[in-house]
Every structure is written in C-alpha cells, then in structure tokens.
Specification:
Length: about 190
C-alpha cells in the first residue's frame, strides 16, 4: 500500500484544491461539448414560438430581428413576419420582472392592426398549478382570453385593477406580470411604428 498523507492543514488544502480543480475542469469540458447544442435548442424554441404567435409567414423573421434596449436594461426583440411581401404580424420577445417569482419572458404576436394574435410563454418560475397556468389561461377561448384585444385601447389589465381580463385564480400577481409584459411589447411596437 502507498504512503498515507499526514492529516495537516497544508495537505487538506492541497487535496481540496486538487478535487476542486478536477471538478471545475470536468464542468468546463461538459460545457464546451454542450454549449452549441443548448444554443441551437434555444434558437429552435424561439423559432417555434414565433410560428405559434403570428399568422403563417414565408420570410425569415429571425434574420430580420430588431432589438430595442429598454430603460431598465432589458431587451425587447421584434420579429417581423410577412407573406408574399405583405406584413402579417410581428412577434415580440418581451419580459417583466414583476412575476410572483421574478422574471417572466414571453413571445407575443401582434396582427398588423396592433391586436394580439397569440402568445407563448418562454420562461418563468411562477408557482406550479397557479401562476404557471399563464401558458394556457390567456389563450383564445379560455377564461382570460387576450387574443383579438388591442393593448392601449382596451382594458388589458386584470379585472381587479379595472381591466377586462380575468386573472388566473389565486395568481393575480402572475396575471399582472404577464399583462405587464404584453403591454410593454405593445407600447414598444407602437412607438417603433411611429
């Protein structure tokens, strides 16, 4: 058998350093192998979200994307969609930091007239079974349906705040956050088109 290391402070620090170095090197190698795949998966998710939130298009909205930095440091990304050279809508990747658990990111699609076509929730950490219902609560035909509504002209806020949208049951904060993201996108899109 090999010689056993003496248990002293210097040896413990050296062993701890060696274990930490090997573990961090392993994480770095795994990250290097998976970074491209993760980026591709995020891009595919974004492309699919664009397809869900605007009418059928034949251009490449990703290639025509335009990013606008917001005063709070966040970014909105606009993806114009056209068919046969005619605008069919704009998908906007928007966000809010006002969710019950913080950050919420959605892709919301607007018709050329500014009304909501559809949306897709991209990221959130809302409470499962409550705020997490935002992925279906505001869709066409559901209780909190926002499709066809034009932010700025209709009460695109929860009914508790005087609006005409039913909040998710027991998740008013998440509902307000979702609508904040939609209204942020609508305002930025209207400002952009001026």
């Amino acid at each position: 058998m090999g010689k056993k290391l003496e248990s002293n402070f210097k040896n413990m620090v050296l062993v701890l350093f060696a274990v930490t170095f090997v573990a961090s090197a392993a994480v770095g190698v795994v990250n290097a192998f998976t970074a491209d795949k993760i980026a591709l998966a995020k891009q595919n998710k974004q492309v699919e979200a664009i397809r869900q939130v605007v009418a059928e298009f034949d251009n490449d909205p990703m290639a025509e994307a335009d990013t606008v930095r917001m005063p709070d440091g966040g970014e909105l990304v606009f993806f114009p969609a056209t068919k046969n050279g005619q605008p069919v809508g704009t998908a906007v990747k928007t966000y809010t930091n006002n969710g019950f658990s913080g950050f919420v990111s959605i892709m919301v699609g607007f018709n050329p007239d500014g009304s909501v076509y559809n949306y897709s929730v991209l990221e959130h950490k809302e409470t499962p079974g409550l705020g997490s219902k935002m992925d279906v609560w505001f869709t066409k035909g559901s209780k909190g349906d926002i499709t066809g509504k034009t932010p700025g002209t209709t009460g695109l806020s929860v009914s508790k705040d005087g609006g005409d949208v039913d909040a998710i049951t027991a998740a008013t904060i998440s509902s307000r956050a979702f609508l904040d993201a939609v209204n942020r996108a609508a305002k930025a899109l209207a400002d952009k088109q001026k």
